[in-house]
Amino acid sequence: MSRLIIISNRLPYSLDTSGETVQIRQSSGGLVSALKGYFELSSAKGTEFDEKIWVGSCDFSEQEWNENKESLQGGDFSIEPVFIEKDIYTDYYNGFSNSTIWPLFHYFPSLTEYEKQHFNAYYKVNEQFAQRIIEIMKPGDVVWVHDYQLMILPQMLRKANEDATIGFFLHIPFPTYEIFRLLPGEWKKLILDGLMGADLVGFHTYDYAQYFINSAKMVLGTDSHYNTLQQGNRLIKADLFPIGIDYKKFKAASEEEEVILYKNQLLQNFGDKKIIFSVDRLDYTKGLNYRLQGYENFLERYPEWREKVVFILNIIPSRDNIATYTERKRMIEEKVSTINGKYSTIQWQPLIYRYNHLPFNELCGLYLAANIALITPLRDGMNLVAKEFVASCKDGGVLILSELTGAASELNEACLVNPTDTEEMADTIASALQMPLEEQKNRMQVMQKRLEEYDVVEWVNDFLDQLAKVKKEQGKLTAKLVDKNAVDKLQNEYEKAQKRCFLLDYDGTLAPLVRIPSEAAPKPTLISFLEKLCSDEKNEVFIISGRDAATLEKWLGHVKLHFIAEHGAVVKYKNGGWEQQTTIPSAWKDEIRPMLQSYVFRCAGSFIEEKQHALTWHYRNTHEGLGFIRSRELLNNLLQLTANSHLQVIDGNKVLEVRLTGMDKGMTALKVVNKLSPDFTLCIGDDTTDEDMFTALDTKAFTIKVGAGSTSANFNIAQQKDVLSFLESIIS
Ligand code: GDG
């Protein structure tokens, strides 16, 4: 039996106990609209889940819950309330969630409050959610945590259940590191670590996902490869899932009698005037003042449109117990009065202002009647109203949309504007009013197709599919970790063998990775282990490294080892001298070096390592983001420069290396193994260059990759620090 547990700050219902009978009200808002849509559609179609549970806090007491339990159970899903003490809830919700995270993540640092008491309440409420969920969670459940109020929760659930399947979705933007870092150190860590408790962390756009990965790197030092993050042994994915809407519901609404009636009423009221509208919760992020200024500029610059247009501004009451919000309301109302006072005539009012919740049918009627939707938030995670308007349009309609909304990355055919550029906004309104109907329809059709294909059900399915995939990938990794069985098997083979060969990479395998390569000299414990390994006459031990011959000789020359240096370009058998594997002169280096040098200047902290047969550019100790960007640029340049030459470019672990083609660890390892014909071969490495060995040796060796991540090796060892003890256990 599989269950889906949805967790959000609020349950999608509230109780209205003001009248004689208790009334149940469904709450509005982006998340509720999206998930309710999925539940309704999926219960009609049937899904893989036998049961769906929604966990959230509520505005009713435990007693009211007990009295109304039956009528409050949702139908498509069951609900589990979390009861939170009022004072704590205020500090958690009005405090940390909406006076710290909300303004900061929407790029309003000046409105951000940093109150320890609020953070403590936030932590505590996340804990209370965790306790409740842990009580109801069963093996096999899929847990999906939503939004910025519950960012610490995933890790709390993870600690209670290591194998749980946990997804997290952030509905608001994740800001750049420069903004995120304004949070005090401990809060930053707890939030990121909290999110890393999930297996999959979803965002609306590519940028938000990248900003999150970057912050995790900067604050937690997390390793990442594209959108995969590594926490200890666990692999986590951060990806984009731009939320969709219940497309069919809005399409169908446009055919409904009541909606059409409301639309006709609007059209009748305003005669042949063009209708511009917007619908937003009251919030400083929505850019309402700039929008009003943009409309005023339009009336000023294009007087020919006066009396021919009307702007219906709908504001939905929200968070009215936070001071910044009430202040905003006053400012907006003043601006509305100014515009109406300035431009109204006896028979015309340019602005209709409503501060109220709209019934669904009225909302749809408005979408249908409007010629233009003017949606210009200063920041918005996505913005569903924009998508709903597009879905509802039948005979044209123009969407003017802020380029700073998440929706702008999908709705390219809208007229995108900068929400603070009120002059551009005025001009865009004027040109939208004159856009030919054919063009309006064409643009709408392209956007509608996209919204229809990736609707809310697709969004949920996509997220849950990806979550299942991450679990599978994690499963594969754990299956490959060297466990007791593997060690027993290797011990057994080792004992039986008469001639054994060890191929051991150095950096990241025998020794930890360090910021400066020259600081990776072997510790006495490593030297004595290698001496012990070599003292058995049946053992032939190769250090196979990208390092230059001189360094390996200096560090380990006194041990009876064989050496393969510079990824196979030079070899030294234990009783012989260094043998060059190539006769090609190294004049090519003079052509490549200046390019690498220019990147040393462009990326502080990077440097060139000069080897006999290779040039290596290291960027481990540079600024993470810059190093990565510069390395991609350099890689691109080097690939162009070396195309059709005898050189190859290797994209290693924080290094780019240029060397001769036809010489890699794989070819040399295979040569050595063929020459020795051992009956036991063990090969260990951590880097992309070691993958060449794993592939080349294939069935001829036991191959082990250090660290998680996909590999063609037979096994993984979780961390470098476990390598020596593992080797000890094989030979003991
Ligand atoms: C967050 C993010 C992200 C609004 N007023 C009425 C009403 N609504 C419905 C709309 C729409 C939803 O509420 C509002 O969604 P938004 O996306 O605009 O904004 P948030 O509530 O702030 O949502 C946002 C979203 O999460 C989803 O991830 O897009 O960026 O901030 O569905 O139709 N519905 C009715 N009457 C109203 O007066 N019936």
The main β sheet shows up as: 9 strands, mixed
Gross geometry: elongated
Number of helices: 25
User: What is the structural class?
Assistant: alpha/beta
Q: How large is the share of residues in beta strands? A: 15-25%
* CATH class bucket of the largest domain: Alpha Beta
Distinct ligands: GDP-alpha-D-glucose
Q: Radius of gyration in whole Å, from Cα?
A: 32 Å
**Per CATH, which architecture of the largest domain?**
3-Layer(aba) Sandwich
Number of domains: 4
Identify low-pLDDT runs. none
In CATH, the homologous superfamily of the largest domain goes by the name: Glycogen Phosphorylase B
Mean pLDDT: 91
Helix content: 40-55%
Q: Please give the order of strands in the largest beta sheet.
A: 5-4-1-6-7-8-11-10-9
What is the count of β-strands? 29
Distance between the first and last residues' Cα = 46 Å
CATH T-level fold name of the largest domain: Rossmann fold
